[in-house]
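Quick one: structure tokens for this chain, please?
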Amino acid sequence: MGATVLRSPAVGIGAGVAISVLLFFALGELGFYSLPFILQYLPTGVGPAEASLELTTLSFLIGFGLALPLGVIRAYPPRIVRKHPNVPHRAADSLPKKLLAWPLYGFATAYVAVIRGTPFLVQVFLVYYAVIFAYPRLMLFGLSAPFWAGLLALTINTTGYQAEALRGGFQSVEGSQIEAARAIGMTKFQTFWSVTFPQGIRLVTLPLTNEWISNFKTSAILSYIAFAELFFWSRTYIAYQLARPIEAFVMIAIFYLVINVTLSRVVCYVEARRRIPGLGTQIMPGPHRV
């Protein structure tokens, strides 16, 4: 029974892929779109797909580096500690921390709220026009202004979402483990680095993967600032120049499905293999475990 339970997701995925492929060819045979045309011009989208992947991955990695301190600040908000009459108050230690902690927490909270509360289309145009007005003929490392504006906009956007995912992961680590680490003499930094961080990262592996996928799909909006990614290729070249709008969007859907589904399944496999038993997931009882 346990082996059947483990194999059922793979069987379901295989059946779904098979049905999708059959439906794709069936619709082509029924004349909804031209299969020979799609098979002929599909390879021309490899270059734009690589551009989308490079920009998405680069912005995601930079955003992770920026989101990590924001997530830590959001996970451990400053608190007002009331002075106990029998405990000496060390004003020299607490005042500088308070003066620094509250503005940082306010900035991190406001940043996440603004990014999550505004459409990416608005964000990308704000960044694009800011870059164009400041550097109208920007060309760096052989890349023009649309690339740098798109990279900056995607980085700003994904930083906000990753920061919130990391906050949730860090706050999900059990307080008893943190208390045990402090009880054996570990500092706050040692506790975070050795206990909270490794467990929190494992807890947010799937949310961060979903954020990368969302970031990859969001990069389609960069076509509006003339960045030659997947959507720009399908709209400009296939739909307009070759006058094949249906085939254009079928082809771009194929690229997105292949890339996103493949990445999702690989990360799910790795997460399942590297998962700490009982951490963030329910342990199946008795016969269901193998």
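Residues 66 and 84 are 37 Å apart (CA to CA).
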